[in-house]
Specification:
Keywords: Cell membrane, Membrane, Transmembrane, Transmembrane helix, Transport. Its main location: membrane. The protein is mainly α. The protein is built from 15 helices and no strands. The model is unreliable at 246-252 and 290-294 (pLDDT under 50).
């Protein structure tokens, strides 16, 4: 019969510390949410701190009427899904190749690692993207993010921790590199690929600087760029919404710069916030398995 562990002061302090850290992490999202559903006048004056006041849902109805928001959501989702799939596929195969004997492997691996520490800078990057025709082009979101050195190194380390005998037995049976990768290596490295998928998806979803520098076509704007733009233009957007709501509206719940900023932020953050906890468990499993050999 297992011995029941005694609850000690260490356990109490440990649980209290983790509870406090959890509260610190969760409270900003809670604060953001209660300000989106509270009286806009009170919220703009900073009087909503711990619980909502005069609850209403007008802000969300107003925000969803913002022109281009639906198109931006589609672009963000499509960009995140396609970019994540291609990044994971490239990282998996290149990471596997770097574990095999091939011409100039050491040189190419060092060349890959160097790119993590040195880059040409913003202006050469922009000129390169311009010459490649990646301005006002959806591929500007996808192509530059496919090859990620850090992800490739993670996969390489993970593959090296798998039993080499599996690959050798497949080679004896006549399997080629692609067959070994697809039928043996790929199923074994799914934990690290899930981790990479989370990293890539969060990065793709949250990115807005590439839109800022490369995109002027409003049909290619992303949700994060919409958030960035409306954060800077919240006052004028609030005035526009006040004019479009009509006369029979409670003045206290009319749109304000604060209500626009908090509501747009919540709309943009909520999708990835709901998805992230379901995949977070892959972080520890994926990285720790590949971090220790033997």
């Amino acid at each position: 019969m297992p011995v029941k562990e005694k609850f000690t002061m260490f356990h109490f302090v440990n649980y209290a510390a983790f509870a406090m850290i959890t509260l610190i992490c969760v409270f900003p999202f809670y604060y953001l949410f209660i300000n989106t559903i509270s009286n806009n006048d009170l919220s703009s004056r900073g009087l909503v701190m711990f619980y909502p006041k005069d609850i209403h849902w007008t802000n969300y109805a107003d925000v969803f009427r913002i022109p281009g928001l639906g198109q931006a959501a589609l672009i963000s989702v499509f960009r995140t899904v396609l970019g994540t799939v291609l990044t994971v596929a490239a990282s998996a195969f290149l990471g596997y190749l770097f574990t095999k004997q091939m011409w100039g492997r050491s040189f190419w691996y060092r060349f890959l690692v160097i790119t993590m520490y040195f880059n040409a800078g913003l202006i050469p990057w922009y000129l390169t993207m311009l010459q490649l025709g990646l301005t006002n082009n959806f591929l500007a979101y996808i192509l530059p993010a496919i090859v990620q050195p850090f992800f490739i190194i993670l996969v390489k380390t993970f593959v090296e921790s798998t039993p080499l005998a599996l690959q050798e037995s497949a080679q004896i049976d006549g399997a080629g590199i692609l067959t070994i990768f697809a039928k043996i290596i790929f199923p074994l490295i799914t934990p690290i690929l899930a981790t990479i998928a989370i990293f890539s998806a969060v990065t793709q979803w949250n990115s807005f600087t590439d839109t800022l520098f490369l995109i002027t076509d409003q049909n290619l704007f992303t949700l994060q760029f919409i958030l960035y733009r409306y954060m800077n233009e919240a006052t004028s957007i609030a005035q526009l919404m006040k004019q479009s709501t009509g006369a029979m509206v409670d003045i206290s719940n009319m749109a304000t710069p604060t209500s626009i900023q908090t509501t747009v932020s919540m709309v943009v953050v909520l999708p990835i916030l709901l998805v992230y906890p379901f995949f977070q468990r892959f972080f520890v499993k994926g990285i720790m398995i590949g971090a220790v050999k033997g």
